[in-house]
Amino acid sequence: MLKIYCYNRCSTCRKAMKRLDEKGIEYEVIDIKEEHPDEETLRKYYDMSGLPLKRFWNTSGIQYRELGLARKLKEMSEDEQLALLATDGMLVKRPLLVGDDFVLTGFKEDEWTEKLL
Questions:
Q1: Helix (H) or strand (E) holding 30
Q2: Tens digits of per-residue pLDDT, 63-114?
Q3: Between vectors from CA 49 to CA 36 and to CA 20, what angle results, nearest 5°?
Q4: For 6-65, how does the pLDDT look when each residue is reduced to its tens digit (9 = 90+)?
Q5: In sequence order, what are the beta bridge partners of 98?
Q6: Distance between CA 71 and CA 73 in Å, rounded?
Q7: pTM for the full model?
Q8: Is 2 helix (H, G, I), strand (E, B) or coil?
Q9: What pLDDT was estimated at residue 112?
Q10: Which residues pair with residue 6 across a beta bridge?
Q11: Cα–chain-centroid distance for residue 89?
Q12: Does residue 117 have a pLDDT over 90?
């Protein structure tokens, strides 16, 4: 079964779940703020995704801006970035969709359609 890490006040997350519901696709919802993925899990998802690590960051989030991460990340190693991502679910791009053999960050309808249908 798919896992979808979401934040209940995120309109993009609600839109993504609505799309899954319309397609009759079952999924487990995980509150990314309360049950965010740990560093080991994030590393696994990053490896599975084939995406650049920058796609895992919630660049529009308050914490991202307050920590000045736009410039700091360039100087950080992948290990340091994954460790920081694991400290707060609000730093992680959402929704984060996890299947048996894929991971998608954010809701890009074309990407989701390609993986799910």
A1: strand 27-31
A2: 999 999 999 999 999 999 999 999 999 999 999 999 999 999 999 999 999 9
A3: 70
A4: 999 999 999 999 999 999 999 999 999 999 999 999 999 999 999 999 999 999 999 999
A5: 3, 103
A6: 6
A7: 0.94
A8: strand
A9: 95
A10: 31
A11: 9
A12: no
Q: What is the rounded end-to-end Cα distance, in angstroms, of the chain?
A: 14
**Lookup: tokens for 24:** 């009759």
CB atoms within 10 A of CB 41: 13
76 close to 57: Cβ distance less than 8 angstroms: no
**DSSP code, position 72:** H
Pairing state of beta strands 2-6 and 96-98?
antiparallel
Round to whole Å and give the CA distance between 44 and 116: 20
Strand partners, 103: 98
Q: Which two tokens stand for residue 88?
A: 């707060």
**14: which residues sit within 8 A by CB, 6+ positions away?**
6
